[in-house]
Amino acid sequence: MKTLASRRLAPAVTAAALLAALATGCAGSDPASPAKDAKDSNPTAEQPADQPAGAVLTAAQLKAALVTPADAKGFEGVDNTPTPVRPKSDKPECSPLADATASGTARTPEAKAWSSRNYSSGATPGLSTTTSLFSYEGEGAQQTLDSLRKAVTDCAGGFSTSGNNGGATVKYVSVKPGESAKAADDSVSWVMTGEAGGTQVPMHLTAVREDNTVALFFTIHLTDPSKSKLPQDLFTSQTAKLTEHAGKGAS
């Protein structure tokens, strides 16, 4: 018979295992260790938000558009600098969702630039959100949101991805629409439930488009997966800063 302690530990172990497999796209630090403030958190290091509306931001400009601990108090951030990895879906119609777990610019449509940061909540230990920003040329940003929205419907029964971190295979047993974010020019939210060691772990994702830039939020709770909800204060701070850097908030 399992002890109470072992029952509490199981979700944390399986969540950490899934997060490790997805570490190339969704975390840049050891999930068992508290994150430290990003080195570039000094606001004076940021580039001015003077981009015209519709600008295709560079990697440096995307990095400047990510919120810092000063922007979203109560969170610690660490930059993600993993080797680009693009997991492959066993179902072609689910490839957009597999791309949402990838790192780097390789995806369909291909991003022009990419920057990412992982945030841990000081008020809610175990809650981790990774924010990744992608810039696109042409209609790439809108196509990305459209393909994600369609895949959420087409892949309700689940799918699997291979070629994750360390060559791992990740099984998603279901995909469900999430709470509408209603932010920026367009948005879509969904919940992908991964399975590891017989335990199911929900992962909440939200994609937001501002002009030619897409912000992707990936949230998981390491100790209580049922509480893996995107922090509203972090989301609000990030979407506001994204609007500013994309040009609409510049004056």
Tell me the span between the first and last alpha carbons: 64 Å
Q: Could you say which structural class the secondary elements and strand pairing correspond to? A: alpha+beta
Q: Would you tell me the overall average pLDDT? A: 81
Helix and strand element order: HHHEEHEEHEEEEEH
Quantity of strands, as a count? 9
The helix count comes to 6
**Inertia-based shape:** globular
Q: How much helix, percentage-wise, in residues?
A: 25-40%
Beta-strand share of residues: 25-35%
Strand order of the largest sheet: 1-3-4-9-8-7-6-5-2
List keywords for this structure.
251 residues; alpha+beta; 9-stranded antiparallel β-sheet; 9 strands; disordered N terminus
Helix and strand layout, with pairings?
Blueprint: H1 4-21, H2 23-26, H3 59-65, E1 75-79, E2 88-89, H4 95-99, E3 113-121, E4 127-135, H5 140-154, E5 159-162, E6 170-177, E7 186-196, E8 199-210, E9 213-221, H6 232-246
Antiparallel strand pairs: 1-3, 2-5, 3-4, 4-9, 5-6, 6-7, 7-8, 8-9
Explained architecture:
By secondary structure, the chain is of the alpha+beta class. The protein has six helices and nine strands, in the order H-H-H-E-E-H-E-E-H-E-E-E-E-E-H. It has a nine-stranded antiparallel sheet, sandwiched between helices. Helix 3 (59-65) packs across helix 6. It is globular and about 45 Å long. Mean pLDDT is 81; it is low at 1-11 and 27-51.
